[in-house]
Amino acid sequence: MADAVSVVEHPLVENALVALRSVGTGTDEFRRHARLLTLILAFHVLRDLPTRQVRVETPLEETEGHVIDRSVIFVPVLRAGLAMLDAMSDFVPGSKVGFVGLERDEKTAIAHSYYQKLPAQLENAETIILDPMLATGGSAIATADLLKESRASRIRLACIVAAPEGIAALRAKHPDVRIFTAAIDDSLNERKFIVPGLGDFGDRYFGTT
Ligand code: PRP
Ligand code: URA
Q1: Which residues contact 147 (CB under 8 A, 6 or more apart)?
Q2: Is 197 exposed, middle or buried (0-12, 13-18, 19+ CB in 10 A)?
Q3: Running DSSP on this structure, what letter comes out for residue 78?
Q4: Neighbours of 185 (CB within 10 A)
Q5: Which among 84, 114, 136, 139 is the best mutation to test ligand 1's pocket, defined by most ligand atoms within 8 Å of the CB?
Q6: How many CB atoms within 10 Å of residue 88?
Q7: Ligand 1 atom closest to Cα of residue 104
Q8: C-alpha dihedral sign at 18, 179, 109, 100
């Protein structure tokens, strides 16, 4: 059976993580490293998608190859999940995109929903939630709830930094959702931020600090 939680280990991921964590990294560099890290993450998140054989004509002769044989739907959780969308979807021609808008209350850390637009026919698709931070797990659980209400059955979460608390909460509520992350950090602080973490991903990526 596939691992429930996969931590992507690679020197290039470590490099990018240091840049993202560093308080001295400005917006442009933060965006660049978020993209590089997501490209590597994509290899792992999409590794076991089914393929089918096709014929292809090279300039020299006809040969055979394989293409992805499943509908893929990316679901970035607004805002921060948008940071991962281009890098992931570049690998999957014909993929569809759904949007879920969630924002954590600064005091309670409870996420409230403000937007939702999902494609039709989620039931046979591979649905990949994009959200760089898995902290309490509230946002990921709410997104998986929404997707299942729309009949999604194959759900993965791609994130960059996860807290043990968020992993445990998501596993408890949605044990079928496979989690892919670049790092599992120590814990959450009293404000429910991941420590050591990288701060507020959305603010750093969009320059709203
Ligand atoms: C952040 C992050 C996740 C969520 C994780 O979003 O991008 O969506 O917090 O925290 P949780 O696991 O405790 O729910 P935020 O609410 O800050 O909104 P933003 O992406 O618009 O900045
Ligand atoms: N959201 C973030 O952007 N960072 C955290 O540490 C927790 C939630």
Answers
A1: 75, 118, 122, 127, 129, 155
A2: buried
A3: E
A4: 20
A5: 139
A6: 23
A7: 16
A8: positive
DSSP 186: S
- Which residue of the set 108, 145, 186, 208 is catalytic? 108
CA distance 207 to 203: 6
The C-alpha atoms of residue 104 and residue 113 are separated, in whole angstroms, by 9
Domains and CATH numbers, the chain: 5-206 (3.40.50.2020)
For this structure, is 104 an active site residue?
yes
Q: State which of 194, 206, 208 you would mutate to test the pocket of ligand 2, scoring each by most atoms of that ligand within 8 A of its C-beta.
A: 194
Q: What is the DSSP string of 78-132?
A: ETTTHHHHHHHHTTSTT-EE-EEEEEE-TTT--EEEEEEE--S--TTSEEEEE-S
Q: What is the pLDDT along the chain (209 residues), one digit of tens a residue?
A: 678 999 999 999 999 999 999 999 999 999 999 999 999 999 999 999 999 999 999 999 999 999 999 999 999 999 999 999 999 999 999 999 999 999 988 888 899 999 999 999 899 999 999 999 999 999 999 999 999 999 999 999 999 999 999 999 999 999 999 999 999 999 999 999 999 999 999 999 999 97
